[in-house]
C-alpha cells in the first residue's frame, strides 16, 4: 500500500469526518470502496485511522458553542417540512442526486395522501464548499410540479425561515439561482440520526392533514353483475 494511496484515503476521511454524517462502519465501507481495485489496500490501517480521528472529532465537539449552525439548519429544515416543503440534508453527491431524492419522497408522500409544495436540499459537493474557504452552503429548491409561481413561493419561505433561524442568506430572486447561506460555520459530529427520509415522513404526517382520495359516484354495476 503506497503512501500516495494512504494520503488520498486520509484526505477523504478528514472531509467525511468534518461532514459528520457517517459512523465508523460507514466510513470504513465507503472509503474502502474507493480503493476496491488496490490489491494491497490495508483495511486494518484504515480502521485504526478512522477510530483515532473520529474520537478526536467527537471530543472536540463537546466544546462547540451551541446551537451550532448545523443544529440551526436542522431546525430550519424541520420547520420547512411542517410547511410541506421536503427538506433534505446531504442528498446525494450532485444536484441531480438531490433533485431525484426529493422527487422520490414527494411521490411517496402522495401515496399516503400528502401533497408537498416543493423541496429543498444540499448535497455533498455543497458541503465541500461549506467546510472549505468559501464557508458557503448552496440550497437547491423547486416546486413539486416545476411551476414558477409556486417555486418562488417555496424559495421565499426557505429564505424567510433560514433568516429567522439566524443565517446570513443571499438570493437574487431568480428561479435559476440557488439560495446561498453565507459564512456558515459547519460543525457536526456523527450522531446516527436519519435527518432525511424517516424524519421527513414523521414531521409531514404529524403536522399535515392526510388527504383522502375522492370517491367517484356512479351507476355502474359491479363487474360480477354482468354474467
Span between N and C termini? 76 Å
Determine the mean pLDDT: 92
**Count of separate DSSP helical elements:** 8
Q: In angstroms, what is the radius of gyration?
A: 22 Å
Mind explaining what this structure looks like?
This protein has 227 residues and is α+β, with helices and mostly antiparallel strands. The chain has 2 domains: 3-61, no CATH class; 69-207, no CATH class. The chain contains 8 helices and 5 strands. A 5-stranded mixed beta sheet has the order 1-2-3-5-4, sandwiched between helices. Strand 4 and strand 5 (179-182) form a beta hairpin. Helix 1 runs parallel beside helix 3 and helix 2 packs across helix 3 (43-61). It is globular and about 55 Å long. It starts with a helix and ends in a 20-residue tail after the last helix. Residues 214-227 have low confidence and may be disordered.
What's a quick, concise take on this entry?
The protein is an alpha+beta fold and 227 residues long.
Question: Which secondary structure elements does this structure contain, and how are they paired or packed?
Answer:
Elements: H1 3-19, H2 24-34, H3 43-61, H4 69-82, E1 85-88, H5 95-111, E2 118-121, H6 124-130, E3 137-143, H7 148-164, E4 168-170, E5 179-182, H8 197-207
Parallel strand pairs: 1-2
Antiparallel strand pairs: 2-3, 3-5, 4-5
Helix pairs in contact: 1-2, 1-3, 2-3, 4-7
Core attributes:
227 residues; 5 strands; alpha+beta; 5-stranded mixed sheet; 2 domains; globular; disordered C terminus
Amino acid at each position: 500500500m503506497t503512501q500516495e494511496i494512504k494520503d488520498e484515503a486520509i484526505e477523504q476521511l478528514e472531509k467525511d469526518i468534518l461532514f459528520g454524517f457517517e459512523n465508523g462502519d460507514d466510513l470504513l465501507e465507503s472509503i474502502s470502496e474507493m480503493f476496491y481495485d488496490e490489491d494491497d489496500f490495508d483495511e486494518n490501517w484504515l480502521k485504526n485511522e478512522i477510530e483515532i480521528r473520529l474520537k478526536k472529532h467527537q471530543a472536540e465537539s463537546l466544546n462547540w458553542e451551541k446551537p451550532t449552525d448545523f443544529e440551526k439548519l436542522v431546525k430550519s429544515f424541520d420547520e420547512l417540512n411542517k410547511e410541506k416543503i421536503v427538506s433534505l440534508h446531504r442528498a446525494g453527491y450532485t444536484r441531480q442526486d438531490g433533485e431525484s431524492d426529493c422527487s422520490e419522497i414527494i411521490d411517496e408522500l402522495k401515496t399516503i395522501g400528502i401533497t408537498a409544495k416543493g423541496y429543498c436540499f444540499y448535497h455533498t459537493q455543497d458541503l465541500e464548499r461549506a467546510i472549505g474557504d468559501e464557508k458557503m452552503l448552496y440550497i437547491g429548491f423547486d416546486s413539486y410540479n416545476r411551476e414558477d409561481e409556486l417555486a418562488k413561493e417555496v424559495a421565499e419561505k426557505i429564505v424567510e425561515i433560514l433568516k429567522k433561524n439566524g443565517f446570513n442568506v443571499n438570493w437574487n430572486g431568480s428561479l435559476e439561482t440557488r439560495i446561498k447561506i453565507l459564512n456558515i460555520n459547519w460543525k457536526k459530529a456523527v450522531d446516527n440520526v436519519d435527518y432525511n427520509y424517516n424524519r421527513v415522513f414523521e414531521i409531514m404526517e404529524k403536522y399535515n392533514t392526510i388527504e383522502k382520495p375522492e370517491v367517484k359516484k356512479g351507476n355502474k354495476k359491479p363487474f360480477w353483475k354482468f354474467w
